[in-house]
Amino acid sequence: MTTSSTTHSPLSICFNGAGSMAEAIVKGLIAREVARPEQISMLNRSNQERLNELTEKYGVITANLEDVKRELLTSASIIVLAMKPKDAGAALKELGPLLQEKQLIVSVIAGLSIDTIQALLGFKAPVARTMPNTSSSIGLGATGIAFSKETTAEQTNQVLSMFEAVGTVSVIPEARMEILTGVSGSGPAYIYYMMEAMMAAGIEGGLTPEQARELTVQTVRGAASMMIETGEDPAKLRADITSPNGSTQAALEVLAAGNFTATVKAAVHRCAERSQEMGEAVKKALL
Ligand SMILES: NC(=O)C1=CN([C@@H]2O[C@H](COP(=O)(O)OP(=O)(O)OC[C@H]3O[C@@H](n4cnc5c(N)ncnc54)[C@H](O)[C@@H]3O)[C@@H](O)[C@H]2O)C=CC1
Ligand SMILES: O=C(O)[C@@H]1CCC=N1
Predict the structure, then answer these.
(1) Are residues 225 and 101 part of one domain?
(2) Ligand lying closest to the C-alpha of residue 182
(3) Interface confidence (ipTM) of the complex
(4) Whose CA is nearest to atom 38 of ligand 1?
(5) At what angle do helices 85-95 and 114-121 cross, to 10 degrees?
(6) Whole-angstrom Cα distance, residue 26 to residue 137?
(7) Domain for residue 85, yes or no?
């Protein structure tokens, strides 16, 4: 990793939790040569088949035996918490006594606050609370990060390098993490949902599934690229497409009649609220 030149021992990253988010980040880190496979270990609770698959695909270290897992966790410079919120409390309670103060915790867990992580560990570990998304696997992720005050400048740079290698990074106050989850953490799912609907309509209208897919994908890709390349507001780009009394206007009127803006905003806010609820549930159950 680029910022590891100032560390004395080689950087090692242990992913505690080996599901889809952990894989998305690992895939990106390896593809962009931010870390070599031998610097990365991945652990889960019990699914050996999944671990074998990850070793085959990426060449990373995986382990199922408890003492090997412990060794990987205690020797890592960075431990990434990548299990579901419901599993995080018990995992952190077990992890706390194994750790040294200088080991950095990077959490990708929705809703789980820095205070709760430190309380469950039993000491004020340096923590980077992050919210990535699955597009990290192709280097197009959008990650929000909030750092605890215990995090050193070197650790901050390491985390920034990790996530900048797999997309864009926004450093934000921790209080904004829930709304960021509503916008970008879960955001890809809303876009896929919209794309599913567009494809279904195209097929209903007689396009082949392949044509409907290609046209929808290219439309979404082109629209995102237009925003990036022109720097224009989406409202202006939308206006450029919408001829007075034309077909686009007719379509947008249907969306407006279905309360499109209010529905999307309500979905983003409900996502934020649900993240908070999941974090609170971990706290209540285990503190
Ligand atoms: N999937 C997504 O788009 C995003 C997910 N996240 C967060 O990432 C976390 C993981 O989500 P996914 O990867 O989707 O879940 P997943 O269900 O695909 O993976 C969870 C992994 O954690 C492992 N695990 C469970 N308990 C464990 C324990 N005690 N010790 C070690 N490993 C354990 C499971 O075996 C599994 O490998 C969640 O907390 C979620 O909030 C954050 C951003 C985006
Ligand atoms: O659905 C979830 O809980 C996670 C958090 C962000 C994306 N997926």
Answers:
(1) no
(2) 2
(3) 0.97
(4) 84
(5) 40
(6) 7
(7) yes
Q: How many domains does the chain have?
A: 2
Tell me the per-residue pLDDT of 72-123, one tens digit each, with 9 for 90 and over. 999 999 999 999 999 999 999 999 999 999 999 999 999 999 999 999 999 9
Verdict on whether the full-model pTM lies above 0.90: yes
> pLDDT tens digits, residue range 98-111?
999 999 999 999 99
Structural domain boundaries enclosing 56: 2-176
Q: Whose CA is nearest to atom 3 of ligand 2?
A: 110
132 CA distance to ligand 2 middle (Å): 10
For 159, residues 6+ apart whose C-beta sits below 8 A from its C-beta are 78, 104, 106, 128, 130, 145, 147, 151
Query: Which tokens sit at 270?
Result: 């409900």
pLDDT tens for each residue of 189-224: 999 999 999 999 999 999 999 999 999 999 999 999
Distance CA 61, CA 67 (A): 14
